[in-house]
Every structure is written in C-alpha cells, then in structure tokens.
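Notebook B, p. 112. Complex prediction, attempt 2.
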Amino acid sequence: MEAQGIAVHGLTKTFKAPQGPIRAVRGIDISIAASETVALLGPNGAGKSTTIDMMLGLAQPDAGTVTVFGRSPREAVDAGLVGAMLQTGQLIRDLSVRELVAMMAALYPHPLDVDEAMKLTGLEDIGAQRTQKLSGGQTQRVRFAIAIVCNPDLLILDEPTVAMDVEGRREFWSIMREFASRGKTVLFATHYLEEADANADRAILMAHGRIVADGPTTEIKARVGRRTLRATLPAVDPATLAALPGVVSSDRHGDAVILTCSDSDQTVRALIGQYPQAKDIEIVGAGLEAAFLELTGEPDVDEPPVLVP
Amino acid sequence: MSGIVYARYELLRTFRNRRFWFFSLGFPLVFFWLIASPQHNKIIGNTGLTYAAYYMVSLASFGTMMSMISTGARIAGERQAGWTRQLRISPLSVRAYFRAKIMTGYVMAILSLIGLYISGALLGVHLPAGHWLEMTGLIVVAALPFAALGVFVGHLVNTDAVGPLMGGLVSILAFLSGTWFPITSGFLHSFGQFLPSWWLVQARNVALDGRGWSTRGWVTVAVWTVILVAGAIWAYRRDTGKV
C-alpha cells in the first residue's frame, strides 16, 4: 500500500441559487497516493474548483469526507503541508515581489529559501518591483512562487495557466514538473486535455459534479480524444461511411458529412482512397465538453455513470 | 512568531500607502491648524477649553476613528482580491490576521495622535504629564469599538461601498459627537451620549480638570465594544462560509 496523499469519500456539495439548487459535487470518491501527479480534468462547471476548495478546507462539504495525508484539510494546512494556487486571486499591493514571497514564506514552518523560490519561478529580475505594477503573466508567476515557497508536500493548482501565453505555459509546466520530481504530490485542475496528457501520470475526469473516468492519461486521452471529420461529399449514404475504419458514428447535413472518429488519421486515408471526390475536408478535435457529454449522457441524471474499469 | 512577521509587513504596506498619509494623518492635522490656529487661546463656548485644546482632541478622535475604520477598507479590498482565501490556506491563524489588522489601525491612530499633540502643544496646550497619558489612555480604549466596526464593515460590504459608507459614517458620528462644535444641551446632547464616538471626543475633558469619563462613558464604550465584536464575528463567519 502506497502512502496516502488525498482521500475523498462520498464528497457532496450543493449551492443555493435563485434558479434552484446547484449540485456542484455529487458524491465523489478520489484516492491519490503521495508523490503522484494527477490532473483533474473537466469542462467549466464540472465541479473541479468546488472539489479543490473542499480539499483545502475553504468550503465545508454537505456530506462525505476529505483527508490530506491522513489529516483534515485544516490540520494539513495548519501544519504547512499544502501549497495552492487558487483559480482567481490578485496580489496585495504596496510590497515588492520579493517582500511578498518572503512574507508568505515566513508563515510556514519549513519554507524554501526565498531566493531559491524566486529563481525557480524566474522572478529574480522583477524581485524589486511593486506587486501592483506586474503584468498578468508576471502576477501568475508570483502566485506560483507563493504556492511553492512554503515547500509543501501537496501542491494544488486550480487552472494555473489561464492567464498565460504559450511560452509562459511551457515554462510553467516545466517548473511544475521539476518541483513534482522532488517527491511532491501534485493535483492540478485544467480543461485542456493536452495539459493533463503532458504533465500528469493520471487524469480524473469530472463532469456535472461526478467523476466519469479515472485512469492513466493515455487511457483517458483515447476515450475523450475523439475528432470530428467534416467533408463535402454529396450522394453517399452516411451509413456506408460509418463502415470506414476509425469511424464511430456518421451524420449528414445537406452536402456535408460529419464523421466522429476514434482514429481520424485512418479515416481520412480511407475516405480519400474510396471517395476521391470528397472535398473541404476539416478535422477538429471534439471539445472536452462534447466528449464528456458522450461519457456522462444527460447532465442531470442522478444515477452515477459507468466508470472506466 | 509568524504572526509578528505578518504584522510587520502589514505596517510596511500601510506606510507605503498614500491614502493613509492623507486621510489618517494629513486631514486631521490640516483641519486642526485651519480651525484652531487663528484663535487658539480663546475659550470655545462654555466648555472652558481653548480652541487649541478642544480641536486637538476633536481631531485626534476623528483621526482615530478614521484609522480604525479604515481597517475595514483594507479587509474589503483583500477579500475582493481573493487574498483572504490565499491566507486562509496558510497556517496564519485568524486571530493573528485580525491582531495584525487592528494593531496597524492603532499604530496609525497613535501617529495621528502624536501629530496633533505636538501641534496642540505648539498652540499653547499645556497639561501635566499625567493628563496627557490619561487622555491617550481614554482614546485608546474608546478606539476599541471602532476597531471591531472596521472588521465588521470589512466583511460585510464590497470595496465599492466601503469608501462612501466609512466616509458617511465617520462624518455623521463626528458631527453628533461634538467634534466640530460643542454640543452642550438639547436633544443632540442627550442622543450623542449613547455613541462611542461621543466618549472618544469627551477624552478632552481631561484637559479641563483631569476628570476622565463618568461611569456612563465606560458602560457605553463597553456595550458598543461587545455589540460590534459580536457583529464582526458574525460577519466574518457569514463571509468565510460563503467565499
């Protein structure tokens, strides 16, 4: 038995809203071993942030339990075991970047050296700048520095790359992987399948407040990585097209055919081979939302969906 | 230990904030010199106090209220920025957080007090050392309900509302408590005595004859402290349960 990182059982949270209760999290179970890196993957509104808030003790579950390294979230936080970058948040003003990072380090029992954290997150050059004068990308890096300067055993990141450009994201994930390689447990929320695939060993898929799949990222990618192929191809029966290799389902809108593919590479080769008249071929990744809907069925059914074995 | 470091940074941030220098320190000092200096040795109304002594304590009370309640603006700002949530996932205790905020309010208030005492002394306010201390002590005690009010307001309203609310509240309280001119009789006099700010301003009577507050003063300040501390705790719980 591996050492326990995070254990979640039957976690449930419902919010009151004018249009009726919002069942943000509907009884989920998660088990994450110490030093695992796990992606919490799902579209907006899947319940990722609510789940994270309960793991951090920022929200109280209506039912169910969360333990972090065998303790309650509050105890784990008080012991300085947890560092987190929340989904939203600005920095307080009137301090320099270095002062802010040093202030946060001082609140924890076993922090990293402040200069080390600054260097790791690429903040050395802007250490003397005031926090209110940073760009969006710089602010995110300072927030990341705050999350790791406490030298946590568990690092939680809630959609950390939202405000970053491509280069910023690449750098961010490389720092994250470096930090994770020190034996840290990492849980990050994202709605990008690519981010989960590239940076986590395992992905947990959430949709409509439930876990719809949990497994190695390669498996998850195969399940939700479907693509849609569109082509202008009049006068061919969609049912015949459904028999092409790699096609899961087919449909027709006027002259256009729409093929949902599990392996679009094979499909496109076969399509051009058999129907050279096909034109305007487009292949797009199915959005996560669409893939999840397929996995979850109706958004509001109460029965739990069938999980990936 | 960590709470002390946090409080130190909190103070550093306050001193770097221009609004603090303007509202808590500059504003009362400028008003004092404008109102009191032309006739500083004259007695105001039937109070027995010189203009200098009267307005020295009046504006010290004003600065104290401003300093303590501005804690609310700082809390509201940090809540809106999501910073409060960041601190809640650190080992910094809730007590240490409020201690730092209230201590900062007191440091600001004391600085404002020192500025006005020096100005008052320059305009001829002479008191025995014991009276200066007693006056300071009363102001420090009467500032307590306002510290709680700051926390209360900071967790109740957002940053857009907190400025006007604080400005309006301090202006009304200052008016009703005889900050700007003596209120010695009538309805306003009877009503004012129910306010904690009235007793804050009444600390000036020490300058007259060394008399502090009546029992009523102590009771009023104590009752308001209890009410506002309860309100602050309620607002904090309501706020953090939700946000």
